[in-house]
Amino acid sequence: MKILIEQETALHQYEIRHNSMEVKRLLHPQFKEVGRSGSTYDFTTTVQLMEIEQPAQGHLHAQDFECITLQPSVQLLLYKSAWIDDAGKASAFAKRSSTWIFTGLGWQMIYHQGTPCEAFAIVKS
Known about the structure:
Blueprint: H1 2-10, H2 14-17, H3 20-26, E1 27-34, E2 40-42, H4 43-52, E3 58-71, E4 74-85, E5 90-102, E6 107-116
Parallel strand pairs: 1-6
Antiparallel strand pairs: 1-2, 3-4, 4-5, 5-6
């Protein structure tokens, strides 16, 4: 589970999101996402959106990770997230799920979904 958490949280980082080689290493070519907004994105759209993304005034906080084995080469990663602005205020709370598959070369995210949820206590690590 540690490698999946590392890769998941790497995708939260602006520097990784702007590195097309890293994005292509972490996201499967058949990647799909249902965002917190309810919008659906495919691999190409996701990569394009990451390329034009501007640095944010804050960061995405993630906690309460749980990993469920669907098959040895398919893992479901569950967690909660919140946006923390530069003043330390939390907003945009969500429950998230990502499906990771092992391709033989490494783990790639093939599906991600974010669902808005009630505010929760932030656990600092």
